[in-house]
Design goal:
Layout lengths: L2 H10 L22 H22 L7 H4 L9 H18 L9 H6 L22 H21 L13 H23 L25 E4 L2 E5 L17 E5 L2 E4 L5 H9 L11 H10 L7 E3 L3 E4 L4 E3 L10 H15 L3 E2 L3 H11 L28 E2 L2 E2 L6 E7 L24 E5 L16 E4 L6 E2 L3 E2 L15 H11 L9 H12 L7 E5 L5 H6 L5 E6 L2 H13 L1 E9 L2 E8 L12 E5 L12 E7 L8 H7 L4 E11 L17 E3 L2 E3 L1 H9 L3 E17 L2 E14 L3
Length: 720
């Protein structure tokens, strides 16, 4: 093993920094190097992270500090001391890399409970916390077990999602996240429960706060997202792809300082409801907040740091939650008459590009990141990036963007609840990192989100823009029927059976060869896949369905180019999926498609003049199929086609028996649906060719599927 070499590297790579500060290795590159060296590098990365995290808790003054909550919305710190260690074991057991647990009790009590989720149980009455000594002993056992695994586990490069080494790196990066979140909880603790430590000493530098100004960021394109073979570790929400055109805007040269925010406080900003969103106002009224939470009045303003209070450093960035940042922007808008707001994630990336921000390397960071410069914020004038300051580092920056998945988003099976619970519109992205952000957190691809009322080492910069902040769609459809149909239309094929809406559209287009292809009607279109397929040949395609919910998914696909939904796997377990028109090869014709809610048995007059009407798996779900068949000729041009597909599954819950077209005895003989179709359509149509049976498969769960045959008949409209 080469851990010592790596530790020596950590001790020397930051020249000029305080030797009392913890020295944090950079996140390793996972696709190159000799396996033996990579094994040693990961071992050093693990021990460096694990040990620094343990030492963070020396900032607690006594054992009582471990068991008293810093804030009601979080567990006491004893939970976080144990949580990061149990995370390793739980994930390694899940990945079948460890045959048995170290301590099942620990690995249960410390498993889950960090963010007010529905499954989080924050009731202390339900917990018999182990002692600090017991947890420290447990951490030592975990440290040894993980090092033994690192020493013995076969290693081939690259390390990617499928590699058995991925959960090891995942555990390290997870602990780095909690290095930061635990430092926030220590900062929120009673001052009597904490104590200063030399290695966690804050920065001493402070001076006069600068006058903030707005500097133009020219319009441009942003392309973000990681490929799944990216050489650096990432969380699931970093992968996929996203691009956007960003309009010109102006960004504040500095983060908002304590001095600049004081103007808002002294102007009565916390008392004037008009500056606050409805959610923000509810938070302010509940908490009775009158100033930033880390400000303290002691015969003058002071600032609470992690382990002490200091006289207010007015040139440091203010630290607030999203609600406070947004209220300040509304006040600033009123004061200046300019369109002041928080930036979006896209605008932050555009600012990074224009400012020339680069990734953190081996040298001390060019921003207050990675504990390279001190265990606190520093003046907003210290780190310049192009014409701006602190584009990265010092404090996280709130954005207007709720977290959402990029196109081609996938959930890692070992941590399926890292990101997806935050796709609720209630978690906003923070960008840029803080003084303690390290590892993955310090990379530009990082996408972390917090509830808007939570506190982190987070502040903000503001922008002026005439453009509205775009709110991307983060919603995953979960209605069982809708998700099954979404998968049926846009998802995977099963058991070698071709996608049915695509196949039926192809049959229709084949039959249309040589005929006019002006306008088509996809009747009973559901989610609209056939409509998009028909648009490859038709100038106009109108999709009509009785269900507004089905139509909504079709509209979403047409307007946004993608739909997102969750699929049942088993029991309460689900998987998450994003499907795009681009991946289906259909994006170039989406402007030809429109969707409408309508009743096939009572269509509005404007639905007429069609060269093709497709009615797939429709007639046996209509309440008056006879009326539909008797009248549909009025909607079709001479020589146009009516394509009907149906499994002929007649059920009284959908269609009164007297309305059935077939599937019963008539005059003592079998009367099939095909017989009924000929009877009702024969006056105005002739059948082209013979009926064809087209299979389809509907997925219900990963172990349950419906396999059905739909009979397809093609009818040509006779000349009038």
């Amino acid at each position: 093993m080469h851990s010592s070499t790596q530790e020596e590297k950590a001790a020397t790579q930051f020249s000029g920094r305080s030797e009392s500060l913890p020295k944090l290795l950079r996140t390793p590159k996972l696709d190159q190097g000799a396996p033996a060296d990579k094994r040693a590098e990961i071992a050093a990365y693990f021990t460096n992270t694990f040990d620094v995290y343990t030492r963070l808790f020396s900032c607690l003054a006594d054992d009582a500090g471990y068991f008293q909550k810093s804030i009601p919305l979080r567990h006491p710190l004893i939970f976080y001391l144990g949580h990061t260690a149990t995370f390793f074991i739980n994930k390694l057991v899940l990945a079948k890399l460890m045959p048995e647990r170290i301590d099942p009790r620990m690995e249960s009590v410390f498993a889950v409970g960090v963010d007010e989720m529905s499954w989080d149980d924050l009731n202390d009455d339900h917990y018999d916390w182990p002692s600090v000594e017991e947890v420290m002993e447990y951490r030592a056992k975990v440290r040894s077990a993980v090092l033994a695994l690192i020493d013995s586990l076969p290693l081939t490069l690259p390390i990617n999602w499928e590699s058995p080494w991925w959960p090891i790196v995942m555990g390290v990066e997870h602990e780095r996240i909690h290095l930061e979140t635990s430092s926030v909880l220590i900062r929120q603790h009673d001052l009597a429960r904490v104590q200063p430590q030399p290695e966690w000493a804050p920065i001493q530098e402070t001076g006069e706060a600068p006058e903030n100004t707005l500097i133009t960021v020219p319009a441009g394109e942003v392309r973000i997202g990681k490929s799944y073979n990216d050489p650096w570790y990432g969380w699931d929400n970093e992968y996929g792809h996203h691009h956007a055109q960003v309009s010109e805007f102006k960004a504040s040269q500095y983060l908002v300082s304590n001095q600049e925010f004081l103007e808002f406080v002294e102007a009565g900003g916390y008392q004037q409801d008009r500056h606050w969103s409805e959610e923000g106002l509810s938070w302010r009224q509940f908490t009775k907040a009158k100033h930033p939470t880390f400000w303290c009045w002691r015969n003058g303003w002071h600032l609470r740091l992690m382990t002490q209070e200091v006289e207010m450093p007015w040139d440091w960035p203010v630290e607030v939650n999203y609600h406070e940042a947004k209220a300040f922007c509304e006040w600033k808008r009123e004061q200046t008459g300019q369109p002041i707001r928080l930036p979006t994630e896209d605008e932050w990336y555009r600012l990074c590009s224009v400012a020339g921000v680069s990734e953190v390397g081996e040298e001390p960071a060019s921003g207050n990141l990675h504990l390279d410069h001190g265990a606190s914020s520093c003046p907003v004038t210290r780190f310049r990036h192009g014409e701006w300051f602190d584009v990265i580092g010092n404090v996280w920056q709130w954005t207007e963007t709720p977290t959402y998945p990029f196109d081609d988003f996938k959930v890692h099976p070992l941590y399926d609840d890292f990101t997806t619970p935050t796709f609720d519109g209630q978690h906003n992205l923070i960008k840029g990192g803080s003084w303690i952000s390290c590892g993955n957190e310090a990379r530009l691809a990082a996408r972390y989100a917090f509830r808007r009322h939570f506190f982190q080492h987070a502040g903000f910069r503001y922008i002026a823009s005439q453009a509205e902040a775009v709110q991307p769609n983060a919603y995953y459809e979960s209605d069982r029927l809708l998700t099954e149909y979404a998968e049926f239309h846009f998802g995977d094929s099963w058991f070698g059976v071709e996608n049915f809406p695509k196949a039926i559209a192809a049959l229709a287009l084949e039959a249309m060869a040589g005929k006019p292809a002006g306008k088509a009607l996809d009747l009973g279109c559901a989610c609209g896949r056939s409509s998009f397929e028909l648009a490859n040949a038709f100038q106009t395609v109108e999709g009509v369905d009785f269900s507004a919910n089905f139509i909504r998914l079709g509209v979403e696909m047409a307007e946004q180019g993608s739909v997102r939904y969750s699929l049942a796997e088993e029991g309460e377990l689900v998987s998450y999926h994003t499907r795009t028109l681009k991946d289906l090869g259909l994006e170039s014709r989406s402007d030809r498609v429109s969707f409408h809610q309508g009743d096939a048995c009572n269509l509005k007059p404007q639905f007429t003049g069609y060269d093709l009407v497709l009615a797939a798996n429709l007639i046996d779900r209509l309440y008056k199929p006879r009326r539909f068949l008797d009248n549909i000729h009025e909607r079709i041009n001479d020589g146009g086609l009516l394509v009907i597909a149906s499994p002929y599954t007649w059920l009284e819950e959908h269609t009164p028996k007297e309305e059935w077209i077939g599937g019963y005895k008539k005059d003592g003989e079998n009367h099939t649906t095909l017989d009924g179709l000929k009877e009702h359509l024969g006056k105005h149509f002739k059948m082209i060719g013979e009926p064809r049976k087209v299979p389809f498969v509907i997925r219900e769960t990963q172990h349950k599927f419906q396999h059905t045959l739909s009979e397809v008949t093609i009818w040509e409209r006779l000349a009038r």
